[in-house]
């Protein structure tokens, strides 16, 4: 397959996501099918342990190989602009600096949970860059892009995707954004 998921996965067994689309939210499964890359892996987890810190502690996955995808919203001339921001769990997205400038909005903030869930078609705590709406930019920190394998959400709280960071960097709409993670 060409990827070693084991370092990022800790104690979990990982399989090809293409062979286990049932472990992915529908928009995520559609994106994974379209990508058609065997290096995208998936593993089932306890949904109570979906939050990054609990996940890493329970399954022995290194925090520095776990990435969070947050939905950010900003307004300009009455238009709401959204983006998915992917940063390592050891950092925070620079929402009111780098993201605000990229979206060209006066103020940017994390989208409400209701909006993030409704617009993405994913569960809160499982949001992932795979399958986000096509008109949203996916902003990826360079450290995520160069990771040999990174854990991200699957769109559901009951599973995680493990994939090389380079795959996240080449998703449709993805942009490497220097300074995104601080």
TrEMBL record:
SUPFAM superfamilies from the UniProt entry: YbaK/ProRS associated domain
A Pfam family that the UniProt record links to this protein: tRNA_edit
Residue ranges of every copy of the YbaK/aminoacyl-tRNA synthetase-associated domain listed in the record: 47-169
GO molecular function: aminoacyl-tRNA deacylase activity
InterPro entries: YbaK/aa-tRNA-synt-asso_dom_sf, YbaK/aa-tRNA-synth-assoc-dom
Official protein name in the record: Prolyl-tRNA editing enzyme YbaK/EbsC (Cys-tRNA(Pro) deacylase)
Species the sequence originates in: Saccharopolyspora spinosa
Organism ancestry: Bacteria, Bacillati, Actinomycetota, Actinomycetes, Pseudonocardiales
């Amino acid at each position: 397959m060409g990827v070693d998921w084991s370092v990022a996965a800790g104690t979990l067994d990982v399989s090809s996501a293409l062979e286990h689309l049932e472990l992915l939210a529908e928009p995520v499964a559609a994106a994974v099918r379209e990508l058609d890359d065997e290096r995208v892996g998936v593993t089932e987890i306890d949904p109570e342990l979906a939050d990054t810190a609990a996940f890493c502690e329970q399954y022995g996955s290194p925090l520095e190989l776990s990435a969070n995808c947050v939905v950010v919203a900003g307004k300009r001339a009455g238009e709401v602009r959204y983006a998915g921001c992917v940063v390592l769990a050891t950092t925070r997205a620079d929402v009111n600096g780098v993201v605000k400038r990229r979206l060209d909005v006066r103020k940017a903030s994390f989208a409400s949970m209701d909006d993030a869930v409704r617009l993405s078609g994913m569960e809160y705590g499982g949001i992932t860059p795979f399958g986000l709406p096509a008109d949203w930019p996916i902003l990826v920190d360079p450290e995520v892009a160069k990771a040999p394998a990174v854990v991200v959400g699957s769109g559901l709280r009951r599973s995680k995707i493990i994939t090389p960071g380079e795959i996240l960097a080449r998703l449709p709409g993805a942009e490497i954004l220097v300074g995104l993670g601080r």
